[in-house]
Amino acid sequence: MRTTTKRITGLVAAVALAASLGCSNFLDVNNPNSVDVGNLGDTTYANLLVTGAIGEFQSMYSTVAMYGSVLSDESRSDHVNASYGPIDQRSFTNLNDIDALTYNPIQRTRYATDTVAARFVGYFGAQAGTDLRLARMLALGGYTYMLLGETFCSAPINLSRAYTPAELFQMARPKLDSAIAIASAAKAAGASGAVADSIMGLALVAAARTSLDLGDAAAAASYAAAVPDSAPTFSEYRVYYIEGIPPQSGMPTNPFWSALGQPIPAVSGTNVSGGVRYLASSVWVTVGEAFQGVHDPRIPMSPTKVKAMDNGMQYVANKPASFGGFVRDTGITQTMDSAGTTITYKEYIGAPMTPGASIRIASALEAQYIVAEASGGDASTLAFVNAQRAANGQGPSTAITPDEVLADLREQRRREFYLDGHRLGDLRRYAEQAGIDYFPTGPFPGSTEQYGNQQCFVIPISEVNSNPNL
Amino acid sequence: MSFRFRRMTASLAATAAMLAVSVMPLAAQDAGTIQGKVVETGSLHPISDVQVFVEGTHLGAVTNAAGEYTISQVPAGAHTVRARLIGYTAVAKPATVAAGSPVVVDFQLSRAALQLDQIVVTGTAAPVAQRQLGNSVTTLDVSDLTSKSSMQNVSDLLQSKAPGVHLTPGSGVPGTAADIRIRGISSLSATNRPIFYIDGIRYNDASNGNYGPSGSGDGVFSQGTSALDALNPEDIESIQIIKGPAAATLYGADAAGGVIQIITKKGTRGEQKVRWDAHVEGGGTNWALPRLTNYTTCTAARIADTTNWPGCNGLAEGTVLTGNPLETDPQALRTGPYEKYSLSVGGGGPRYSFFAGADVINDRGVFFNSYNDRRSARANFSVGITDKIDLAVSSSFTKTHTRLPLGDDAASGIIISATRGQPGSAANDGSGWRIRTPDLSNQYDNQLDADRTILGATLNYRPTTWFRNRFTAGVDINDPLATIYYAPNSAFSIADGVFPSGFIAQRMPQTHLWTFDYAGIFSSTLPKDLSSEFSVGVQGTKNDARTVSANGNGLPAPDFQLVQSATTVSGATGLTQIASLGYYAQEQIGWKNRLFVTGALRADNNSAFGDNFQHVYYPKASLSYVASEEPALASIFDAIHADNFRLRFAYGEAGRAPGPYDALRTYGTIRVANGDGSVSSGLTAGSPGNPDLHAERGREFEGGFDASFLGNRAGLEFTAYHKTTNDALVSIGSPASTGFTAGYYINFAQLQNTGIELTLRGTPVQTHAVTWDAQFALSTNHNKLNKLNLAGTTQLIPYNPYAPTAYPTQLIKEGYPVAGFWGEDVLRNPDGSYALDANGKLQYDSTLKYVGPSDPTYEGSLSNTVTLFGNIRLYALIDFKGGNYLFDQKDRNRDQASNRNSLHFNDPAHPLSAADSAYYSGNATMPWIVPADFIKLRDVSVSYTFPQSLTSRLGGKDVTLTLSGHNLGFISKKYPGIDPEVNFFGSGTFRTGTTNFIQFIRVDSYTLPMLRRFTASLNVSF
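YS: structure for the whole thing
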């Protein structure tokens, strides 16, 4: 027995010793789904960081375009969740979830492009000055600052005070200038000319648009004029998404597809219109009143109203002009009776939205629009307007005065860039610089309440709570 | 039954049989036998399940239904024999054993309203008598509870049984989890659940990882399932509950929410016989509470619209149609069969004891696609290796299979479709169902299989009389498989519309929760009647959680139910690890076994602490004074007829650790479309981290007294507590301008809880014919957020999706109860009438008004047990809660414009004014924040124990027949909805750490009310 006791004593002692030795690393745990920020100084992460920033931009762009379309006059919200309606109604607070869903990705993208650009200087020193990856980060970064200013009433940068849109636009331009310079230098140093041209085109269009936002027409025209007006040098810059119906979880898809009712071609069935089936429980972005009845091939939509998430009947947009897979429909001639008069019009159905529909975010055509706007309502603007009208089945403009010409230009612009993330910034620019307010007003559809007067998203409560400078 | 379960069960049965055969009296020439009978004082009825043991040895036995026991192999000589049972005063008697001859030692045990010498193992370094503790401990006698009413799981055992333990069932769906809190809300972003141990091993009570039953996939608002409930109550001997930091200091940085220790049955060493217990129970569950009637008023427009309102066709304007599809459609609800079978065997030899048991439960819910089945097996074994060393090992295996129906606010669910129904409408062919008919809803297929294995061992080593060691180690392995399946082109899949071509998702969230625990106890007797017990210990836990999940979309045919058969597949894996390590030292000084002073300090480190924070220290101090044993005070207690009176005070601290990786600033991955249809991965901002992150610090002071009167037949326990949580973890949205948007933890807030707990128990009548036992328990809790300490704001918002964003229904606001209810109302005149605008319309008040707390401020229970002639027992439990509010979304919805099917809007006798109509169907939340007070008849049972004279002819079996009812109905309630115990976000109890604070949401939104269960059971012991 004594032997047994000794053995057990020894065993306990051994266990205690092993336990005490084991304690030194008992608290070590694995975290295999992330990398510590402190390890990112290694240049092997350079390409992954660039790719990540591009991914953030992809995710951000479609999100901002979609929610921005609801706040502007492009779309209406038929969502049953209580957070969506106030955005559509232009009456919300910094507690609104959708406001935060718009703010967060744009700030993430800004941070990603800023920090990756800064890391590149650390990684590669002077060589970074001819690195197209850095040029792309600066171009996307500048574009993001521009969007931040167009979308938000004000915004901080890394826990700063809230900057005005004008200050944000001022921050955007140097980044875009640097992107142009580095892309140009890279091209001169033998880098891919096509890639360099693409980045330069993006940066030039963004710089021109930013200049318009700043009221600097001369600079806008200058930047826009520098944009090559045709392929192969530069035609357009797109953000891309992944097809697949339904999309796989976590894949970069275009959120418009889901918000438009996950449309799929269908001849018959429930909620079918124009050969497209719209899932009623998913339809919550529908065509805004201001865009119904436009009958333009660039704004195709369901020919009849379909049931939306809130059980209301609404028109649903199909792929507009800026979206990948856009089909320039020849139109179906229809007639309608209006106050005793028979009106003939073309009905454009186009192609239903898909999860992988890319979005054109900068183009030579946009540069021409910017040149036209910067020129005022002169003859060249009228000529440009008439060219666009003719290309889209409209007769010549009846505008005479410069203001009328500019009004017609604005009309063409809203059709050309429907749902692609331009409209909110345009409306704010028109209101601020020309005193023309296109934001919807009056009774809010389907309600006894009135539209509010908000024209921009606000800094959400999560930022306000945590930012000591707000 | 799976092969794995069959194999486990067979193994256990073989082990039990081997042990049973081995329990044969071992002849020894120098040993004798002690035998006798234990009866109750007063009634003289025999008492079963009494532990009778020979002090100073491991020898003992448990009495049978006739109160008889036999202890063999007792060494010859003088001994002290002690008989004890929870609820009775322990009695010791001398016995002198002569070799080869039996000694008869009979006992009479008196019912004890207060038991100062009951052994407590929870919150202490070593087993101690209750009189030594300065804090309150609640001990549940589970054998007694299971014999009185139908108990399915641990949640059933905890409901309304211990003052201060608050349990919200959430939903009546079988297998769904309850929310459990002790002494109020004490954390904002960490869990408010207590931690659980089983025989010293940390026991997983987390979510089983089911897919949310809210339609397709993982809906946010839904019911969860809990690993807690994978335990057979018949295997449990008792449950000990310590309620906060004052008592839980030795458990350290996870224990601020209290500790619940489950102690399983182990057999009795020295019993020298085998005892079999069989339990067979059958019955059914049904929806016994009211089912809402729908109303339609046939307006002129509806009468004219024969397409959409065919039911109004030809009727007079103003005719009101009624319908109740839940009542009339036989495919909607059923009385769900309930079956339970359990078999256990326990016993022991001179140096060992064992317990083995198995059970089968089949619980079919009221929906046709709902059930919760459980098969479990357990084997416990202990052996005295030497006089100084003993070893106890335990093992259990549980297999749970749950199917969850569409629930809560799932669009295709039965309840939502029934209660939004509009009689007379054309929807679903005029059936009265609004969205789906039950034949479709019942096809919804959401299942969970969970295999649970728990292994543990405790080694006790006593090298000297003054030094003891205890080493415990074990692991709790939970291995669930969640599956959600949409058959391709089935009627349901097509109607639901999300996955018409079929879909399957599977997820396996496996956890391994390891525990090791060492305690060394040094006991010594000091001069002047002083004693000392010094303890040191180290405890470690490590949780390794791995998840594998895969989805497949587009299945070729219903035969194919694996992900790889789908046309589109995706998958993911996850790994989360967290470890904690704590050390403690405790000194307890006793004086004359009636005054005890204890002091302790625990140091904790945790893998989740930030780099700038290494250890946290938690102190503890307590005092216990059995004043009634003080000779100088005897006259006082005699004057007030007090048999026992003990004062106790305790102060202690404990914590709650942050989440596993919350302190780390990291980058994660993001998928990027390349433009050619391919995808790349990139790095992007992930967790913002916080290097200063550390555990919350809970501080608690409690004081109270325990007293018994009238010969220990009446007892009173009273405790008052004041608990604060400092450095409370707050999960807020990261300031996105930093580039990080994931939840961000800071140690900022301070909360407090105060309250009292009172238990009054007694035996008012005790005669041979009638014994009446009664217990009344009451607890109060007043919760407040003292400081939020967030720059720029004094409130946070738990997210209720049904409330207008600008007018949330619950707020976490300084100076008010955490997540208290706040309502949006309309402007009113001084007399309370509406203050209408110039157009006669309501004007909404932009200022939220405080209504009340979301957690009860008081709750309690009254139980009565009447035993007639020793073999007929009547039992009833009434419980009550109140002071809190609930958001009644379901009835709000019925008033809103898209439904308007409530009596409220269709009562010709009481037509609503235009303003009232606008008020009830408008944005105002105030009308729907309603009191949740109730008094409920929770349990009733009647038991009959067959006379021994009858059962002895059948082989000496003890046979008891019990008829019981559970959730029988409300005696009264203020709540205007169906059931104030529901919460449409039952899984919120597991969703901590979110910036939406969804663990605090309290909403009734089409949630299945608690079900009534009637069962008949037969217990046979032999």
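YS: worth flagging: The CA atoms of residues 943 and 962 of chain B lie 4 Å apart.
IM: good catch. Also Chain B touches chain A through 86 residues (CB under 8 Å).
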